Amino acid sequence: MTVLPDGVSVDAEDGETVLRALSRAGLRYRVGCRRGGCGICKVRLVLGEVAYERPIATTVLSDEERIEGICLSCRAIPITSIAIELQEGDRLRKVLGFAFPA
Amino acid sequence: MSVMRLGFVHIRVTDLEEARNHYSNTMGMKVVHEEPGKLWLKCWDEYDHHSLVLEEGGVGLVKLGYKVQTKDDLERYEKRAQQFGCTTGRVSAGENLTVGDGVAISVPSGHRVELYDEIEYVGTDTGALNPDPWPRDGRGIAAHWIDHALVAADDPGLLERFFTEALDFHVAERAITNISHPEVLGSWMACGESPHDIAVIKGPDAKLHHFAFHLEDWNAILRAGDIMSMDDVSVDIGPTRHGITRGTTIYFFDPSGNRNEVFAGLGYRTFPDFPTVNWTEDQLAKGIVYISRELNEAFTTVFT
Ligand code: FES
Ligand SMILES: [Fe+2]
After folding, report:
1. pLDDT tens per residue, range A30-40
2. Is A38 on the interface with B (CB under 8 A)?
3. Most buried of A27, B122, B186, B282 (most Cβ within 10 A)?
4. Helix, strand, or coil (residue B295)
5. Measured from the CB, is residue A41 less than 6 Å from ligand 1?
6. Do the strands B52-56 and B38-42 form a parallel or antiparallel pair, or are they unpaired?
7. Separation CA A71–CA B227 (nearest Å)
8. How much distance in Å is there from the Cα of B89 to the middle of ligand 1?
9. Three-state SS for B217?
């Protein structure tokens, strides 16, 4: 998957959420509960498709948002190659300096 | 008599089985009753029938139950809530499992608070006759009891007025913008002598920030942190100490994203004449996380 605006590419394993794949790569971005409850981790799905294995409350992610391509990155599992765009003002941050070549 | 304590928390969870695992195996509560889509639980050191209701579907708070001592208290607080301008209603016995007649109040922040004076007594796991200090079969964190809740309100000052003027709570600590223009940003209020039974911070109306479990001491907080790692619990902040209340703490999330806290240390007692402690906005991070003095973004943005 590709993360905009940084343009960084990361491999996600089968069944892995967007959040987990990015964490595993030593990258951080804006998240809250990491458990699908707060909506802080929303990103825009620019390309590709994601699926949810757990129920998502409509108070957290509305149907309109889904149609607009907003996804809950702590629960969304890529099922194709995807590109996502972080929220305005958010950027990827490297927490493991050696882990990922910027 | 004043309100006695936070008696029960009723929340929504997206997946009941994951929630059951978290609250029973990780937190150590016992499931005391279940129906399709709903669970009732209690902690080992609690003697009332239940202190937590989990309802499948969505996230966030359904209501908070506060226990009072007598029927007269129910009537008096119902009247005073109405005088304050709140909508109230009656709750009949049995609407909440094993709970007697009660009063429902829609408080100024839009949360539903219910007062009741009767609930089935079941006793603690150690009993009330020559008891051991803790049960040998405690699971996971083995939390003692549900201690307090922190809710969000668009106007925390108004909610503070409601709890103090209508329900006789007193303010242990308060967060304000600054001394010259003291707009209330947060308030920690007690009905008994513990530092807080309800707290409010500025945020979206009707939302929950967290509810907290009481643990014995700082060592128990560390042990709880270890168990959270073993069980892959999403941790928000801590272990650390709060400047406000002096309690030691970890904030974390249940599997649906509702924030929990483990909280230890009765930092002081709040008698009715306790002089309110104030924190100014510029020092608020220290008030909340005393050691690092730095709040993460999630603390003020994540509500369910
Ligand atoms: S971080 Fe809370 S919903 Fe994703
Ligand atoms: Fe708390």
Report:
1. 999 999 999 99
2. yes
3. B186
4. coil
5. yes
6. antiparallel
7. 31
8. 35
9. coil
Q: Cα B172 to the chain's mean position, in Å?
A: 15
Subunit contact A55:B14, Cβ cutoff 8 A: yes
Percent of chain B with pLDDT over 90: 95
What residues have CB less than 8 Å from B187, skipping those under 6 apart? B156, B157, B159, B160, B163, B171, B173, B174, B175, B199, B200
Q: Does A70 reside within a domain?
A: yes
- Predicted-assembly ipTM surpassing the 0.90 threshold: yes
In a domain, A99, yes or no: no
From chain A, the residues in CB contact with B297 under 8 A are 30, 40
Return d(Cα B33, Cα B42) in angstroms, integer.
10
Tokens at B206, concatenated? 């009707």
Give chain A's domain count.
Answer: 1
Q: Is the peptide bond before B239 cis (omega within 30 degrees of 0)?
A: yes
Whether residue A94 lies inside any domain: the answer is no
CATH code, domain carrying A21: 3.10.20.30
| Ligand 1 atom closest to residue A33's alpha carbon, by position in its atom list | 2
Q: Would residue B116 show up in a list of annotated catalytic residues for this protein?
A: no
The pTM for the full model equals 0.95
Residue A22 belongs to domain spanning: 2-89
Domains of chain B (ranges, CATH numbers): 3-116 (3.10.180.10), 145-301 (3.10.180.10)
Secondary structure letter of residue B275 according to DSSP: P
Q: What DSSP designation does B50 have?
A: -
List, for residues B36-50, the tens digit of each pLDDT value.
999 999 999 999 999
